[in-house]
Amino acid sequence: MKKIEGLYRINNPHTANEKHGGKTIMKEVYWYLAFYDNDYRVGLYGSTNNDYSRFISEKFELGGNYILDDDKIEFKIENPYTNETIGFKGVISKDKNEIAIQGIKESDNEQKWIDDTFKKIELDDIS
């Protein structure tokens, strides 16, 4: 398989609990994987549903380089704020519209962080 490019959003959002002024606010966080054709780069970010701004601006605090082997993809992302490394392994559908992927926190006794499918967002839909 050649390089992969585009923006992919997780199918099932995570729930984040944030404390503000003694109250806890729960919100849905959608994880995005952004792949760029140059240098096998991948970026990861969490945001609200339909937030494409970081993909368009190519600004990521969490990123790395990916390796493709036929329909399999693998990459690591290091979080500079928590010093955690998350290793990702997955399978890309033949039409490149979905990636079934697992993310494992290497510093947390190999705990699964993500085990889900990311679906490609058509660039024509981004306005």
Overview of the molecule:
By secondary structure, the chain is mostly beta strands. The protein is built from one helix and nine strands. The chain has one helix at 53-57; strands at residues 6-10, 14-20, 23-36, 41-47, 62-69, 72-79, 84-92, 98-105, 111-121. It has an eight-stranded antiparallel barrel.
Secondary structure elements and pairings:
Elements: E1 6-10, E2 14-20, E3 23-36, E4 41-47, H1 53-57, E5 62-69, E6 72-79, E7 84-92, E8 98-105, E9 111-121
Antiparallel strand pairs: 1-3, 1-9, 2-3, 3-4, 4-5, 5-6, 6-7, 7-8, 8-9
Task: List the main descriptive attributes of the protein structure presented here.
mainly beta; 127 residues
Q: Calculate the terminal CA-CA distance, rounded to whole Å.
A: 29 Å
Strand content: over 45%
- Helices and strands: which structural class? mainly beta
- How much is the radius of gyration in Å? 15 Å
Along the chain, the helix and strand elements come as EEEEHEEEEE
Shape: globular
Q: How are the strands of the largest sheet arranged?
A: 1-3-4-5-6-7-8-9
Helix content class: under 10%
**Biggest sheet, in brief?**
8 strands, antiparallel, barrel
What's the overall average pLDDT, rounded?
Answer: 86
- Low-pLDDT regions: none
Task: Work out the number of β strands.
Answer: 9
| Count of helix runs | 1
